[in-house]
């Protein structure tokens, strides 16, 4: 006799696919933005990181999920002719410093040790929440770094260096400790692409401003400020984001962003590394990293009817797979839909009648059970 495949087994692959789809979603977005330079002549590096800070905030990531690390020695520098202000364009149309900025690691707190401790959550027990990266395995993380660097190293405030191996090992610890779902690593420095050459952890997408033996260049200077105010790679990333990604509902993908890179404008060869990433770039929204996750949960009202409809469709599918053309029991049964009854008194009487009927049936069943037990007790037992 040929074994008959049950509908539930046939539907198992479908259910597994649905579960996989749910698990593939992330529930939060975080940003770690780092300027590793200090001193007035590195004004543009501060402007770079503050520009990215403004962008992720504009697209919805709250300050509670942004870690901002910078020397913070420019806004109030005595050489700044625009005190308490930082600009990324010579027209000075936008003050990046403003009155709504939260710096989490400032001045000499911006060190290699603190950066790695932040990523791996190896911080002191009394570290405030604002200085911790409170992510989990459902968090997407955008890591942006800018400063002076070279072949597989990035300087921190002209005092120390972090290597490509250090960052790669830190990311591996994060993966082992389930501290991220997917990660976008972006770096603007000389020979930037060498900084992600040692990565080996899964689900990391990386991009940089220049390849080996190439410098990264500033875009333009402000004559009144006296120094360059932004780097080219960051400038053209921001230009695309400002012109195309207007809000968190944007459908532009990372492929669109990377395709916009023009070596003639950037004056170097930006790179993108995708071999560790498990998704196609044309399927990854920019807001998957730059924007906030806005999953909305609604009340259960109406969910029961929706569940019934879904169950009915699954039953039809199962019946059709088992015996083509045969109607399922759920399909044969009349579909009861909820209607609006305007006469509330009539509804009350119907419900009351049903209640009395159910009570009578219950009492009758109890009496019959009692009679059967009593009758059994009177019958003499045979040895």
Oligomer: single chain
Widest β-sheet, arrangement of strands: 3-2-1-4-8-9-12
Q: What's the level 1 CATH class of the largest domain?
A: Alpha Beta
State which percent range the strand residues make up. 15-25%
Q: Rg to the nearest angstrom? A: 32 Å
Termini Cα gap: 46 Å
Largest sheet: 7 strands, mixed
Number of strands: 12
* Number of helices in the DSSP assignment: 11
Order of helices and strands: HEHEEHEEEEHEEEEHHHEHHHH
Query: Share of helix among residues?
Result: 25-40%
Average pLDDT works out at 83
Q: CATH fold name of the largest domain, please?
A: Rossmann fold
- Class based on secondary structure composition and strand pairing: alpha/beta
CATH architecture heading of the largest domain? 3-Layer(aba) Sandwich
The general outline is: elongated
Question: What low-confidence regions span 5 or more consecutive residues with pLDDT below 50?
Answer: 15-23, 335-353
Number of domains: 2
Pathway: Glycolipid biosynthesis; glycosylphosphatidylinositol-anchor biosynthesis
GO biological process, one term: attachment of GPI anchor to protein
Organism: Sphaerosporella brunnea
Protein name: Peptidase C13 family-domain-containing protein
What does this molecule look like?
With 383 residues, the protein is of the alpha/beta class. The protein folds into two domains: 26-290, Rossmann fold (3-Layer(aba) Sandwich), CATH 3.40.50.1460; 299-337, no CATH class. It is built from eleven helices and twelve strands. It has helices spanning 7-23, 43-58, 112-120, 164-176, 232-244, 254-259, 263-266, 287-290, 303-322, 329-332, 344-378; strands at residues 28-35, 66-70, 105-106, 139-146, 149-150, 153-156, 160-163, 182-188, 204-208, 218-222, 227-231, 271-273. A hairpin with a 2-residue loop joins β5 (149-150) and β6. The radius of gyration is 32 Å and the shape is elongated. It starts with 6 loop residues before the first helix and ends in a 5-residue tail after the last helix. Mean pLDDT is 83; it is low at 15-23 and 335-353. Keywords: GPI-anchor biosynthesis, Signal. This is Peptidase C13 family-domain-containing protein. One of its GO terms (cellular component) is GPI-anchor transamidase complex.
């Amino acid at each position: 006799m040929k074994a008959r495949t049950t509908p539930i087994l046939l539907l198992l692959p479908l259910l597994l696919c649905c579960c996989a789809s749910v698990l593939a979603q992330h529930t939060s977005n975080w940003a770690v933005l780092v300027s590793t330079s200090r001193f007035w002549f590195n004004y543009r590096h501060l402007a770079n990181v503050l520009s990215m800070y403004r962008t992720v905030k504009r697209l919805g990531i709250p300050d509670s999920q942004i870690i901002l690390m910078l020397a913070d020695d420019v806004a109030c520098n005595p050489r700044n002719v625009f005190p308490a202000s930082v600009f990324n364009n010579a027209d000075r149309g936008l003050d990046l410093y403003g009155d709504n900025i939260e710096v989490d690691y400032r001045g000499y707190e911006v060190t290699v040790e603190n950066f790695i401790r932040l990523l791996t959550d190896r911080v002191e027990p009394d570290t405030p929440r604002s200085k911790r990266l409170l992510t989990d395995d459902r968090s997407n993380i955008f890591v942006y770094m800018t400063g002076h660097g070279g072949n597989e190293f990035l300087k921190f405030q002209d005092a120390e260096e972090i290597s490509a191996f250090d960052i790669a090992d830190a990311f591996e610890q994060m993966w082992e400790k389930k501290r991220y779902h997917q990660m976008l690593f972006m770096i603007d420095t000389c020979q930037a692409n060498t900084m992600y050459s040692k990565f080996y952890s899964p689900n990391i997408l990386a991009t940089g401003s220049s390849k080996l033996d190439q410098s990264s260049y500033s875009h333009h200077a402000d004559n009144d400020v006296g120094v360059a105010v932004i780097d080219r790679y960051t400038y053209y990333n921001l230009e695309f984001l400002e012109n195309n990604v207007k809000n968190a509902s944007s459908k532009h993908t990372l492929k669109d962003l990377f395709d916009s890179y023009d070596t003639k404008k950037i004056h170097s060869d930006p790179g993108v590394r995708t071999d560790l990433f498990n998704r196609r770039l044309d399927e990854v929204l920019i807001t998957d990293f730059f924007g906030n996750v806005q999953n909305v949960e609604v009340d259960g009202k109406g969910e029961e009817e929706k569940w019934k409809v879904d169950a009915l469709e699954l039953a039809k599918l199962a019946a059709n797979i088992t015996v083509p053309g045969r109607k399922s029991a759920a399909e044969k049964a009349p579909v009861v839909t909820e209607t609006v009854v305007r006469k509330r008194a009539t509804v009350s009487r119907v419900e009351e009648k049903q209640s009395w009927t159910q009570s009578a049936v219950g009492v009758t069943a109890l009496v019959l059970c009692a009679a059967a037990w009593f009758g059994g007790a009177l019958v003499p037992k045979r040895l």
